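[job 0412] stage=complex_fold ligand=zinc ion status=START
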Amino acid sequence: LYSYFPGGPRWPRSKRSLRYAIAQTAATPIDRATLSRVFARAFARWAAATTLNFTEAASAEDADITIGFHAGDHGDGEAFDGPLGTLAHAFSPAGGRFHLDAAESWVATGDVSRASSAVAVDLESVAVHEIGHLLGLGHSSEPGAIMFPTITSRTRKVDLASDDVVGIQSLY
Ligand code: TQI
Ligand code: CA
Ligand code: ZN
Ligand code: ZN
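[job 0412] stage=complex_fold status=DONE, emitting structure tokens
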């Protein structure tokens, strides 16, 4: 079963269009065009289940949600921890912050199960989960759900389960 993010935050019902920016932050080996494509696909999965829509903004000043890669202690009291452990975190909806650990071996193209690194993490899978938090979902007790709080490294999991869909439709 799905749950709501602690405190039950959500974007106002009047706000159907959310804008996100991919900020120039810590270095990643993934090029900008690939990042745009992966995040667009991740947002589209939630847009398909709701009446929300998402567009990429050119700058953070112009966006509701800011996505960035950060290494170690990056000033929000939730330091990243190097490979694995915490992969990313999102704070919803206040501030719309979505941070990814720059120390992960992110895989943005191709089959993560065939990645050369034993600790490879599929970027789109993590993005779909964190967007769920950005929209106000907490964790699910359903192992097949995107919002289930465990993912195995070198695994791709990007399709919303019916539990995720019922949860998000109860919010929007
Ligand atoms: N990051 C945690 C997460 O997004 C952060 C977190 C811990 C959290 N406790 C929370 C967020 C309570 C909201 C409410 O769940 S993570 C997964 C998963 C992480 C974990 O880096 O551990 C994914 C990021 F679910 F697979 F374990 C992405 Cl997909
Ligand atoms: Ca980490
Ligand atoms: Zn952070
Ligand atoms: Zn989570």
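The chain has one domain: 17-171.
[job 0412] exit 0
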